[in-house]
Design brief:
By secondary structure, the chain is of the alpha/beta class. Helices cover 45% and strands 14% of the residues. The longest helix has 18 residues.
């Protein structure tokens, strides 16, 4: 069964729900609601990676993340992922009880990141991004986006394993919307099976992404992109992705149940 990763943004400026869950009580309540709705994993992020986002210090990230991780862990065994590019934040998060380091830079933000991941022994999500969050959507360009993303992720997986990260701890994420135009996102979704064929579990994050509004201008604001999110997610499921990173957990869980029932009926 495809796993569902629910998003908890501890940021004032995330593209979809920035500021809604910045307060600790609101964040914990949202985390509880996602688990109740069927989330297998909670992905906590304290620094927005939307286009043009302002960087956040490691100390600020830790101050936002650690109390929530501890609060969740005190009452639940749910898998906790932390969305950060900084090794010191990952270290603090794992010490507080997190399980997965979800890194948009594929352990490339600092030279010490691969060794830190190996030392921590945590799960690691390696994501593809062309450029960096502040400028990634300025002029993204590829000759063959599918081949280039696949090659990048394969290399980063090799780097992680060379540093001592166990192969079975590594997940790949094509980074839909991260330094990619509409045509790049569609090509990746149409050929997701080629990324799955690399042999690592693939995490797909299409939830409420801007490319949906490019296809349907009525899909504004971001909360209006639920149907498009599900369509793109199910395309990934058909290709064999292992997990979906989503904002709308209950809707995704229901869609996956129906999809699984149809698949069994075949």
């Amino acid at each position: 069964m495809v796993r569902v990763m629910g998003v908890v943004n501890l940021t004032p400026d995330s593209f979809s729900d920035g500021g809604r869950f910045l307060a600790p009580d609101a964040a914990l309540a949202h985390a509880r609601a996602l688990v109740a709705a069927g989330a297998d994993i909670l992905d906590l992020g304290a620094e927005s990676t939307r286009p043009g986002a302002t960087p956040v210090s490691a100390d600020d990230e830790i101050a936002r993340l650690v109390p929530l991780i501890e609060a969740i862990r005190a009452e639940s065994a749910v898998t906790i992922s932390v969305d950060t590019m900084k090794s010191q934040v990952a270290r603090a998060a794992m010490a507080a009880g997190a399980d997965i380091w979800n890194d948009v830079t594929a352990l490339g933000f600092s030279d010490e990141s691969p060794a830190t991941a190996a030392e921590l022994g945590c799960g690691v999500v390696l994501m593809h991004m062309q450029g960096e969050p502040r400028t990634m959507q300025a002029h993204p360009s590829y000759d063959d986006v599918v081949a280039e993303v696949a090659a990048f992720l394969n290399v980063r997986a090799e780097v992680a394993m060379a540093a001592g990260v166990a192969r079975d701890k590594i997940w790949l994420d094509p980074g839909i919307g991260f330094g990619k135009r509409l045509e790049h996102n569609l090509a990746l979704l149409a050929h997701m099976d080629l990324l799955v064929a690399l042999g690592f579990p693939v995490l797909l994050g299409v939830s409420r992404k801007r490319f949906i509004a490019a296809l349907d201008p009525a899909a504004e604001p971001a909360e209006a992109r639920g149907p498009g999110s599900l369509a793109a997610a199910l395309a990934g499921v058909q290709a064999g992705v292992a997990a979906l990173r989503v904002h709308d957990v209950a809707e995704t869980v229901q869609a996956l149940k129906v999809w699984a029932a149809i698949s069994r009926a075949r």
